[in-house]
Specification:
- The complex is a heterodimer of chains A (about 240) and B (about 290).
- Chain A has a domain at about 85-155.
- Chain A has eight helices and nine strands.
- Chain A has helices spanning about 50-55, 95-105, 115-125, 145-155, 175-190, 200-205, 225-230, 230-240, and strands spanning about 10-20, 20-35, 35-40, 60-70, 80, 160-165, 195-200, 210-215, 220.
- In chain A, α2 crosses α3 (about 115-125) and α2 (about 95-105) packs parallel to α4.
- Chain B is mainly α.
- Chain B contains twelve helices and no strands.
- Classes of the chains: A alpha/beta (about 240), B mainly alpha (about 290).
- The interface between A and B is medium-sized, with 32 and 29 residues.
């Protein structure tokens, strides 16, 4: 059973999203507690990214999304978002410290970064096992290292709800395993809920508390074992992958 | 004694050189010191956002801006050109978002239309020679009024950069990442193209249409070859731009060449130097790694 402290929870009721007259999501209802990782699996075009964007308030939706922070019900939830496949110039002069510093301070980083901001950036990067990357240029990072740096940015400040959109889709197996273990440690260490859209069905299973199979609506829901052994999941991924 | 005379006399005291005895050289030096750091700063984002062609189109579109000013009967078409370039910059940004054509193709279309229209209107009756100053620029004729406008633009752009510099950098790295950090990407991108447009319009008559884009791109492109972080990128870009500006101006005085072109060649010299230095450093590093 997940270790829920009920500090915060997210309730989604009958969520629907349409682009023009094309319905991308309909009738999605789910409930997520603090210290829980929910894995969202589904074929390409199933609406996984749209679900995350709707939760983050980036796209218009019908239905209801309710966030509750029990210590302060009037407080608006804070989101952390790690987008999928961030492409950038490999010869970009921006360093990891520069990127993380933009999340810590409003002072212009092009003028310089003070010792205290550097110290804070180091601490944030330690959380994701990336403190040794602080002075590297972002073009020198591997896919897994970049995703951990983006995760560090998403954790500054610590969010109530962390949304990970196929975070390891372009990462090697070793990098993916390290990423999942970092996410698992975050779940235990902070009062946050985590929703992770992913293609890596088997890799994510040991770390997820619950899983949903999404294909415009929820097809199957339960523990990772229940969803992955569901006949509908097997049929869908045999057909689509 | 006017303010300009006080400034010129002050400069004379610090610059005991033959070229500095002329007021037009002192005005030109002030223009260089005001504008080159701005070009360097804005250029870092132009290069990072791969907008070199965009700014080139803006520079060339000035011909149409000047033509509109002339058609409207303005004795100095500066304000018509400024408004036209700003409106065009925003239109090009919005048009890029709604068309399926590649960004280069879209910009190429705007380039063709604005240059052709400008040349057609300005050459009507065979009077295009009057406007060649816009093509190659003339920093030696910069007026006190132009210096005042440049000073105001300098303050405005520096303020903008201090307020939004981090967001511009984040948007340059990746717009999706910037959006995920709560940055209003559309606001940043539109305000940035307006800043580029204003900078181009204000300096066009002194730098020239043919060279203004080089001054935006070369210092930042050179700095990019050696910089390991954003601060170094900005610092090298500004230093290269200012040194090239001052050196180019002084050398153009002694060589009797066009100032803007001499400044650009200094920038290009830095680019070649840094490119070669970077290559040698990489070659040396690879050799050491091979031998260990």
């Amino acid at each position: 059973m997940p270790n829920t402290c009920e500090h915060c929870c997210t309730k989604i009721d009958n969520l629907g999203v349409s682009f023009g007259c094309f319905p991308v999501l309909q009738g999605v209802s789910l409930h997520l507690n603090c210290h829980e990782i929910l894995a969202v699996i589904g074929p390409n075009g199933a609406g996984k990214t749209t679900l995350l964007r709707a939760i983050a308030g980036e796209v218009a939706y019908s239905g209801r999304i309710k966030f509750l922070i029990r210590s302060d019900p009037s407080k608006k939830p804070r989101f952390g978002y790690v987008p999928q496949k961030v492409l950038f110039d490999l010869d970009s002069p921006v360093s990891v410290l520069d990127l993380v510093a933009t999340t810590i301070t409003d002072k212009p980083i092009w003028v310089g970064i003070g010792a205290s901001v550097r110290r804070q950036a180091q601490q944030v990067l330690e959380k994701v096992a990336a403190d040794d990357l602080i002075d590297k240029k972002i073009g020198e990072l591997s896919g897994g290292q970049l995703q951990r740096v983006l995760l560090a940015m998403a954790l500054t400040p610590v969010p109530d709800l962390l949304l990970l959109d196929e975070p390891v889709s372009a990462v090697d197996v070793k990098g993916a395993a390290l990423f999942y273990s970092v996410v698992d440690s975050l779940k235990k260490g902070y009062d946050i809920s985590i929703i992770m859209a992913t293609h890596n069905l088997n890799d994510v299973a040991p770390f997820a508390d619950r899983m949903i199979l999404l294909n415009h609506t929820i097809i199957s829901e339960g523990t990772p074992h229940e969803v992955l052994s569901d006949r509908k999941t097997i049929e869908m991924f045999q057909k689509n992958l | 004694m006017t303010i300009s005379q006080v400034i010129y006399n002050g400069m004379q005291a610090f610059l005991p050189f033959s070229w500095a005895q002329y007021d037009f050289m002192k005005s030109a030096l002030l223009a260089v010191l005001l504008m080159t750091p701005l070009f360097a700063l804005v250029g870092t984002a132009v290069v990072s956002k791969r907008m070199a062609f965009f700014s080139d189109v803006l520079g060339h579109s000035a011909l149409t801006g000047v033509a509109l000013g002339v058609l409207l009967g303005m004795p100095d078409p500066f304000w018509a050109m400024l408004v036209f370039i700003v409106v065009l910059a925003v239109c090009m940004y919005l048009f890029k978002g709604i068309t399926r054509a590649s960004s280069d193709t879209t910009l190429g279309v705007f380039f063709a239309i604005t240059v052709a229209f400008g040349v057609m209107m300005l050459s009507k009756g065979g009077g295009f020679n009057k406007y060649t100053v816009y093509l190659i620029g003339d920093i030696l004729t910069v007026s006190i009024r132009q210096l005042a406008i440049m000073s105001a633009v300098c303050v405005a752009i520096l303020t903008y950069w201090f307020m939004f510099g981090n967001k511009i950098i984040l948007t340059s790295v990746n717009p999706v990442l910037a959006r995920s950090r709560g940055v209003s990407v559309v606001f940043i991108e539109i305000s940035f193209v307006i800043v580029v447009a204003v900078l181009v319009a204000v300096s066009l008559k002194v730098i020239g249409i043919l060279m203004i884009n080089s001054l935006l791109v070369l210092p930042a492109a050179s700095a990019r070859l050696v910089a390991g972080n954003t601060r170094a990128y900005t610092f090298f870009s500004v230093v290269i731009s200012v040194i090239s500006g001052v050196a180019g101006l002084i050398y153009s005085y002694y060589w009797g060449t066009a100032s803007a072109a001499t400044i650009i060649l200094w920038c290009a010299g830095f680019y070649l130097l840094f490119a070669l230095a970077g290559r040698f450093v990489r070659f040396g590093r690879n050799s050491i790694l091979k031998n260990t």
